[in-house]
Amino acid sequence: MDLVLCLLCAVYLTPFIVAARMEHARIGGVLALNLALGWTGIGWIAALWWALRPCAAPPEPVLRRGHLRLIAGGRASARSKGASRWKRAS
User: Fold this and answer.
1) Rounded distance, CA 12 to CA 42, Å?
2) I need a labelling partner for 47 at 20 to 30 A (CA). Which of 3, 23, 63, 78 fits?
3) For residue range 32-70, what is the model confidence (pLDDT) as tens digits?
4) Number of domains the chain contains
5) Maximum Cα–Cα distance for the chain, whole Å?
6) Does an H or E element contain 77, and which?
7) Residue 85: closest CA among 71, 72, 68, 70
8) Is the same domain home to 11 and 40?
9) Range of the domain at 81
10) Are residues 48 and 67 in the same domain?
11) Are residues 47 and 85 located together in one domain of the fold?
């Protein structure tokens, strides 16, 4: 009986297991969808589909010109709103 229960849990959590094995970026969302709506069948299929979809890498942060600049020594200076265009790094 315990083996059957473990197998049923493994089948029910298959979308989460697939997402974990693929190191999916939205693994928490897949688990939440699976737990909340997996019992409907449609929710389980949707969670499995989401787990199998390749997810895009998160975008790199963009530094806009004028907001931050690198200076000698690897330090950065930020733009200030005062009279001076650049705030000196100390």
Assistant:
1) 12
2) 3
3) 999 999 999 999 999 999 999 987 666 566 555 555 555
4) 2
5) 76
6) strand 76-78
7) 68
8) yes
9) 63-90
10) no
11) no
